[in-house]
Design brief:
The chain is mainly beta. The protein is 12% helix and 44% strand. The longest helix is centred in the N-terminal third of the chain and has 10 residues. The radius of gyration is 13 Å and the shape is globular.
Length: 133
């Protein structure tokens, strides 16, 4: 259910970005170690064990067991903001903020019109904690 929630969040949004990233600090593969869905429920450990997020140039790839989803992203290192776009030209934007502390990444994402302003659990916002894989 939580993988579906994550994919629904991603698939309700859309952007069309260029090929060159504006950020290099997120580049690489990240293993999800903890997550809370937009409903406030913790993501199951079995799902977390398989979940990987990859930032490769301007590509964002989510891999979780049999699920593989690829889209584009833009991030602003100075403001620690990120925007994700699902494939198929949707018009909404999945907005988020992040904190990078060494090899630890915390990411909040919202499909709402407003970007989260804090890295905390709140209604309608997914919070993911990751380590560089």
């Amino acid at each position: 259910m939580y993988r579906i929630t994550f994919l629904v969040l991603l698939c309700t949004c859309g952007l069309n970005f260029g090929a060159e990233p504006k950020t290099t600090e997120l580049q690489g593969i990240w293993k999800v170690t903890h997550g809370v869905g937009p409903d406030g429920a913790e993501l199951p450990k079995a799902a977390l064990e398989k979940a990987r997020l990859t930032f490769d140039k301007n590509l964002f790839i989510f891999q979780g067991g049999p699920i593989l989803m690829q889209t584009t992203f833009e991030a602003d290192e100075s403001r620690k903001e990120i925007d994700l776009a699902p494939p198929k030209g949707e018009v909404a934007t999945l907005r988020g903020i992040y904190r990078l502390n060494g090899n630890k990444l915390t990411l909040t994402l919202s499909a709402g019109k407003d970007r989260p302003t804090q890295l905390i659990i709140q209604p309608g916002v997914m919070v993911l904690e990751m380590i560089r894989d």
